[in-house]
Amino acid sequence: MRIVILTGAGVSAESGLGTFRDVGGVWDQYDLARVATPEGFARDRALVHAFYNERRANMRAARPNAAHHALARLQQARPGAVTLVTQNIDDLHLRAGSPEVIAMHGALDQALCAACGHRWPAPAVMGPDDPCPACGAPETRPDVVWFGEMPYHMERVDRALAGADLFVAIGTSGAVYPAAGFVAEAAAHGAGTLEINLAPSDVADAFDRHHFGPATQTVPAWVATLID
């Protein structure tokens, strides 16, 4: 059975990483148009770098939780049969032992040169005057996908969805496209669909089955039905 899993912020929330919808959380304290769009970066690079420096420190202090570890065990138990796609920009799936993760929104621990496209491991603290190690231009930015930009690796994701027997969305709001449309795409190719979430998402009606509850409980329980 070929499984495609999409994870969102709800998977990492129990590791202490805030979601977009947290009331009073880190995302609620900022105007996302100022810190998560190309236009915001063009207006105030220092503010955007400060925001992502804080996110990077938060990520490095966090630890993978039981949901991350369960998904890593599933991938390890079924090599080549489980495609893990994440909307998250943290590295917790990899630190939990997942052999491969398609990070459609980029990665906090990577830097990108807006001038030449070079990528390299991000330092703990980045600033607007940092030169690109490849071309020297002071055009360094976090290698993350901002609102209004095209997600990464969409061709790989589309191929995986087309060949899936089961599509599972975990900890996603169903509010952000194109990811919110993956369930319909997978179902159109004949895949079964399952939502694992704290509460119904915006596209809950599109799923065949649902498991609701904290990810650290629901995800290990579901994985156990497949490999134990």
TrEMBL record:
Keyword Metal-binding annotated: yes
Binding residues annotated for Zn(2+), in chain numbering: C113, C116, C132, C135
Subcellular location as annotated: Cytoplasm
Domain of life, per lineage: Bacteria
EC number: 2.3.1.286
Notes concerning its domains: 2 residues (Tyr-52 and Arg-55) present in a large hydrophobic pocket are probably involved in substrate specificity. They are important for desuccinylation activity, but dispensable for deacetylation activity.
Protein name: NAD-dependent protein deacylase
Organism per entry: Rhodobaculum claviforme
